[in-house]
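Notes taken during the Thursday session

The instructor put the following on the board and asked us to keep it in front of us for the whole hour. The protein is Glycoprotein endo-alpha-1,2-mannosidase. We were told not to look anything up and to reason only from what is written here. First, the residues (463 in total):
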Amino acid sequence: ILNYDIMARFRRRTCIILLLFILFICSIMMALKTLRPDRAGFGDPFGLGLLPELQQRTVLLDSKQNSLNRAQGDTVTHVSNLRSITVHTMKASMSPVKKLDEELSSPNYNFHIFYYTWYGNPQFDGKYIHWNHPLLPHWDPKIANNYPKGRHNPPEDIGANFYPELGSYSSKDPTVIEAHMKQMRSASTGVIVLSWYPPGMADENGEPTDDLVPVVLDYAHKYNLKVTFHIEPYKDRDDRSMYHNVKYIIDKYGSHPAFYRHKTSTGRLLPLFYVYDSYVTIPEIWANLLTVSGSQSIRNTPYDALFIALLVEERHKHDIHRSGFDGMYTYFATNGFSFGSSHHNWASLKAFCDSNNLMFIPSVGPGYIDTSIRPWNNHNTRNRVNGKYYETAFSAALLVRPEIISITSFNEWHEGTQIEKAVPKRTGQVVYLDYKPHKPNVYLELTQKWSEKYRKEQEQWLM
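Then, after some discussion, the predicted structure tokens were revealed:
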């Protein structure tokens, strides 16, 4: 009997140890999958649905709704009264301040960060904008019926899975703009890539944003930051409208000290424009604008610039080259979502760019979650793993020795790619994600860490 009891206890102990070991292995495998997911590209139904125009090539983009690959490109609200509110109080303090330079990390102009000025609240805008984002239905009605509809109800219920430390802010608020500039500078980024629509234009969820650009430029200059433009797929975007809009930007903002110009290998200083959803316009139309022999050529004119196309599918690299673009970027923060956003493809893309005299600008992000606006899209969520996902992306980017690294994003809250400060928050209906066990500024600190690491490694590359 004694031996039987001993054997029974031994078997129970063995089973418990085995079960714990299996759970440990499963946890490790899930963590590894989060950091480096399977090569799920646009062949899966979620990828195709988020970028439906990839299924049928179009010449022009009619609406940002068609792509659904970023939270409904919404822009900032009317700002006609903004200058009268802020201009007299700002001008005296707009020059770079030496004290700020001493307190904050030096800007790294090879670190570009995507920035959105599309948020609004009743105090500054008379209503909430973007924080009340609608819940987007799945493209399959049978699946859509299984998920909630409607829109968010700020300030407690916002269209994001995280909650900003600044609350449901307005992008018009000068104190918010300055806080953002200070955060970006503390992260040792150097160039703000500002989401931009032409004057009077916006997407279906936003309002015109161009009037806010001078204020952003002024505050950027105060913090020794530079500003470039992320040209969104506005209605009827083609070679002619792009020529006029590039001319408009350079004429209106090109003389500002915060306007970014990139020094090329030949020593030229040229503006640089990121062109979102560039692939929805055929290469022949882009070539009219971007090649020397094009009918609408901007080359060798006072408005010549570096134009960076969005690469999603592998075949886009050939289209980008034929179009006359100067380089490509990958934008998406979901490793495995697209060919371009998959870290394991960056080496081959960099090699293609090197052999064709193109710039390759990988985009790194801290994670991805957009279920607050696309409740059916759990498939593309990427857990932050307390910062490890972000550091894995930076590590992959540095391996290919890029001239520039872009960061998705400073404040795209709808898709959970922000590095802006976030805080824990719980309401009656919602429990928001947060950065615990770390502080609200952890992703700014990680960016600063990798900015310094990039600088040191770049010195070795140049040697």
